[in-house]
Each structure stands twice: as C-alpha cells, then as structure tokens.
## 1
Amino acid sequence: MTPAEQSLKAAEICRLAPVVPVLVLDDLAHAKPLAQALVAGGLPALEVTLRTACALDAIRAMSEVPGGVVGAGTLLTPTDVKAAKAAGAKFGVSPGATQRLLDACAEYDLPLLPGAATASEVMALLEMGYTVQKFFPAEQAGGAAYLKSIGSPIPQVKFCPTGGISLKIAPDYLALKNILCVGGSWVAPKDAMLRGDWAAITTLAAEACALR
Ligand code: 3PG
C-alpha cells in the first residue's frame, strides 16, 4: 500500500467521527464492552495502544463488535506493524515515523497515521505521500494555534492531533481547516472501565460525537 493510498484510507477513517478514542486496556475482559459502549455513543474508529500485554487480543475481540473500525496505536517497530495486522487492525497510528516503520506499513498493507510535530517532519512525510498525519503531542507541542500556523504554508496536510486534548479544548482543533478529527483518551477513563460503567462511557462518547 503506497503512502498516498494509506492516507486516503486514514482520511476516510478520521472522518467517521470528530474523536478517535485512544485506548489503554489492562484487562481483556473490558475490550468488547468498551468497544460496544464507544460505538453506541457514536465513535466507531477506535485506537488500541500497543502498550499493554492484552492489546493485541483486545484488537481481536473489539474487531468483532459491529460498526467498529479498530486500529492499533503506539506502533514503534516493524514487529508491531506485523502483529497489529495479524490481530486484525484496520489502521495504525504512531507517535512518530521511522523509515523502517513506514516500510513495514507498506509491506503489510496497514494504513498508517504517522506522527509529526514540526514543519520539517510534516514536510518529510508529505514528500513521501502522507497527506494525513498525527500531530503529537498536540497540546505540549503548541496546540491548536501551532497547527493553525502549520496550515498556512502546508494546507495540503490534514491532521489528527493527539495528546492532552479534552472535551473542553477539542473544539479549538476541530474549528481548523487542516483537522479531520482529534484523538484522546478522555472518553475511556480507567475508573469507569474498572467499575464496568459502560453507560458512562457511552455518555462521554455521545458528548464527543456531538462536537461536530
Ligand atoms: C497517547 O498516545 O497517549 C495519546 O496521545 C493520548 O493522549 P491523551 O491521553 O493525552 O488523550
């Protein structure tokens, strides 16, 4: 899959809803009800971070939930890409981009949202054909004002900013022309998952869905 093809698919996924939940799952038993709760609230694209032991099995379990589009986040190495694809991930997300990671996504046909945080990083990815990128870490790197400035000279790149974004500040990003959606973990708080309070998570998802 070429970078341009990957970005086309990534754009399609990013346009499904204003927010892509960034999920850190410690318990495999949470995977299915969590995905059901988020999809029910109107957030179909789900990013499961490969940071916990059960993440790949969680991708498998969540992929069975009707209406969900499950991807893998925190892709750092070619091995992560191969494992994510084997688990059924429909897309990948990385905090950054290395040539080895990009080569693996091409080889395994995994549409990637590669991470960038500076104009030069954005330009390097654009040169390769990536017109849809993750802006990370969004708040810490300069926030919505920074992204707006990047959009003046480089309007052809669209972003999914992630990192430090909340329901309150998400509208600042979503108002920009070069934003397709935002990513955030706030829609799946750990305490709600531990309580099994899936209704609360559906409410958070519905609030996030109503941002646009
Ligand atoms: C991450 O990869 O951790 C994401 O950027 C999520 O960030 P958040 O927890 O600040 O929403």
Note: The domain at 3-209 is CATH 3.20.20.70 (TIM Barrel).
## 2
Amino acid sequence: MNLQAGVSKKITIAPSGYAKPGVGEQGQAWWKQAVVYQVYPRSFNDSNNDGIGDINGITEKLDYIASLGVDVIWLNPIFMSPNHDNGYDISDYKRIMPEFGTLADFENMLAQAHDKGLKVILDFVPNHCSSEHEWFQQARQSRDNPYRDFFHWWPAEKGLPPKRWSFFAVDASAWRYEKKTNSYYLHYFSATQPDLNWENPAVRQAMYQIMHFWLKKGVDGFRMDVLPFISKDTAFPELPASFQGDFVKYYAQGPHLQQYLAEMYDQVLSHYNIMTVAEGTGVTTDTVMNFIDPKRKALNLLYHDEGMNLGYLPNQFKTLPESGYKLTEFKQLYTKWNDAVKSAWGSVCLGNHDQARMVSRWGNDSEAYREVSAKMLMTFLLTMRATPFFYAGDELAMSNIGFDDISDYRDIETLNMYQQIKENGGDLHAFIESQKITARDNSRTPFQWGTQAFAGFSEAKPWIRVNPNYKTVNAAEQQTRKNSPLNYFRKLIQLRKQTPALLHGEYQLLDADNPDVFVYLRQHQSQFVLVALNFKADKSAFDAQGWIRRKRLLGNYKSDNMELSQLRPYEAIVMEVTS
Ligand code: ISL
Ligand code: CA
C-alpha cells in the first residue's frame, strides 16, 4: 500500500487554512489554550467546619489547583440562594450565599487566584431565578405589579395552559397555579425556579447589569446556565399530537435567541477579554454555531449534552443498559462535534456536577481498572482539539458513591423524580438501581483530600456523605506517588501545553469502525501526534493506518509498549508519528 498517498488523501489539513486573522496561531485567544477545572464549592473544602464547603475553603486550596497546571476555575453558583437546587435558584445575584462566605472572601479568593495565574469564571443563571427573589415576590402580588412581566404567566380565565413538562417538578408540569392572581407561572425546572421573561427589556437590562457588576470585580467570564432556554415561543402553542416528549428541542432556542445574544455581546461581553461558555442543553451540531460562530456576536464556547446522554435508553430517565455505551457511537459523536465547530472552537468534557463521576460512567471503576481507565479518559480530554473541562476529583480518579438509600440523596432531581415515580406507582427499585450509576449526587460527594475523618474535607459531618473509598482514593496519597492519576494529570497538561499539535492541531479520526479503540491523529505543520485509547478491559488491536511511531510522548502504563498496534486494558498512548 502506498502509505503516503493514503495518508495525504485522509489528511485534508493545510496549516495555512487554519490561521485566520485574530484566531490563528499568533492570535490564539487564551480560552482556547486553557484547561478548565470545575469546582463545586459546596463539596470542595470546608474552612469553618460547618460541613459545607465555602469560598475560604477554595482559597486555602488555590496552591493545589495551581499545581495541577489548569488555567481556569469554573465555580458553580455562589450567589444568595435558598438552595433548593444548590445555587441554581438565585434569590440575589449580587450577593454571596452566606454559607459560602462574604463578598470580601470572594474578592480575596479572586485576587489570590489571579496572583497564582489562575482565572475564575462564574456560573450565571439567566433563564430563571429563585421564587424567593424579590422580583418574583413582587410579581406574584398582583397582575399590575411592575415586576409582573419579569416572568411568564398564563391567566387561568384562558383555561388550562398548554402542556409543558418540567425537569424537576413532582407533578411533571412546568406550570404552577397561583391563587392570588388566578394565574399559572412557568418553571421549566422546579416550582422554586420561575423562568424569567427575556422578552421584557427590563429583564435583559437587569441581567446585563449583573454581569457588569461581576466583570468589573475582575472575574474572567461566565458559564451560562441553560442559555438556549432564554428565548421561547411565548405564545406557548399546543404541542403537536405527534410530539414525543423531547421538550428541550421543542421549547428552547426560540425566535429571539440571536437577538438576545447579540445584544448581550454588544452591551456586555465585547467590553472584556473574557471566556464565555454556554451550557448547551438540547443544542445539536446543526445549531451550535448560532452560539459560538466567531463571525457572530455571541459566545466563545458551548458544551453540549449529547455526549453526556450517549447510551441512555430511550424514554427512560437516565438509564443505561447493562452493556453500557458503544464506543463506535462515542467516536462518531465527538468527531461530529469536532467537525461542526471547526471554524469556531470546541469544548470537551466527560462529567460535571450534573453527571456521574467520569471514571464510573465512561471508564471502569473496579479496583483493577479504576486508575488506568481514569488516566485513559484524561488522555482523551487533553488531546482533543477543544478546550477541556475537568470536574474536581477527576484528577484523583474519584468514582461514584452509588447511594442505594433515598435518604442519602440530596439532589432535587433525584428526590423529586423519586416522589413522582412513587405517586405514579412506578418501579422505585429500578429507579434507585439506575441512580446508583447516573445520579448527579455521585459527583457531589466531598473532595477527598486525605485519610483523616471526612476525607479532610471538613471536621464536621458533611452535608452529603463522603465516599468510603477515601481511605485509598485521596490527594495526599497521590501527591507523592509518581504514577498516580494526579501526577499523570499534571504531566498530561504539560504535554498538551508543550505540543502545538495537541493544543491547536487538526483532528482526524483513524480506524473509525474499531469497536474497542479510539485512535486519532492531531497535526500541526510537520508535527503529527497519534493518540490511541483502549476503552476495553481486554487487550485490543487497532490499525494505525500506516503511521510509524517516532517517539512515545506519554502513556498510562509504566513500561513502554513496543507494539504499536496492540494495547493493554485501558491503555492510552500518545506518540509522535511519521508516515
Ligand atoms: O442534570 C440534568 C440531567 O440530570 C440536566 O438535564 C440538567 O438539568 C440540565 O442540563 C440543566 O442543567 C443546569 O440547570 C439546572 C441545574 O439543576 C443544573 O445543575 C445546571 O447545570 C437548573 O438550573
Ligand atoms: Ca463551611
């Protein structure tokens, strides 16, 4: 076979085609080169021993975070909130939740982070606020209250509102009746999270003002919660009879989305050198560019939920089949997303506070394979052409706790869904079995710092149970062990930063039909890097399609693997190759 010919047909990359003014090699925006580390403040480190993680707790651990080599900390919501949905129900956007500390604590944390070269982005929740927010408290008083139009109402004299499902409501309905004004209000999430009405210019101005408030304090950007939901068809038409319940597609990304994004860009985002990330619930490769096309006035990045939902059984709540997910579909999906955002920039993640632990969901958390498979997944995230997002604890290969008793759960999603199933006489046992694998609380257990009580997270009983495996899985133990997941993570980040092909090279999938191994090539100018990842617990072979190894850059096995095309269980190798 003529390798050269085969190769040149496959690699359609011209380095010059990549460099565009402003976004080319010279003008790389900082957020394209960054590695993001997500911190769930409630679960990271408790400085005052009340069992709840807090801002000063994060400040204490900034040296640890900096030592990882990551660039950006994304903090889940830290604003005033009654915490029905752990801060995604904000009652005052300009104040810090007292459990987490004060504004001074936050400013101190931000200054210290900046001193250590770390950037901080905040989680901004534009689609809904808390029902305890002053706006809603006012709005519900009377139909002519000045804040009435901050929310979506359906007057009861018009009859029942058209069916809309809610993510978290026990009765599954996104409309909640209020006797006082004889109207229903809209809440796509729980009844304590009324949707804000972005059609109202006063709502938009209030939101932009809040963003300026935090940006002027020096924060480095925002992750924007369920951004596609801000524009809706506010006529609320009846759903078509054929409608199958995929409501995210149906009632987000409404007619004024582009207008709102452009306005937000003009009035706020364009004034700062920041990172802006949309949470892209329901966004597909067909619509992603509406959010991140550099030619538009919009955001920098979007992370999609298509990857997170891969493998779930249709029409069942977050349930995986015994066989798990199919690697061929995983490869296709990430390749499709890579291609879709080629002229912009991608993001990649395998977990967050809404998901199971990365190693439990996508790798293998059995004793034999937990570490090696976690390292393999880290290798994937740090070698794709996208800004990688890690969730705190991924670097330690922290795994699911798998609560089997409903009383251990804290998350509104699990608790309300449990209640809903119970009221409908559904199969609660099956629900708990599936939650052991996919529940959001799996990722919300306290960070495992050491072997002391409560894993060193707190001296008091934490708000949610610590994973009992902390005695063996913890940062202190991994700090000094040369080949620990923690130290592998650090090495991998350095490798990414030193290797232009990994940082911004083109991506090309190889051996697409291989059901066990994910193989791809990254190329920048004359540098070719091949990444081969065995997603299986058996030895697996792959076809390097003629590429010849020049130099091994990194791998998750101690000893080198001299056989280029045979991988050991969950083996990951990154190597420079030549044709
Ligand atoms: O968590 C989910 C599935 O288990 C998602 O459907 C999630 O509800 C959706 O992606 C929106 O998530 C965001 O908004 C929610 C909040 O609960 C999540 O934590 C947040 O990431 C409401 O604000
Ligand atoms: Ca605390």
Note: The two ends are 12 Å apart (CA to CA).
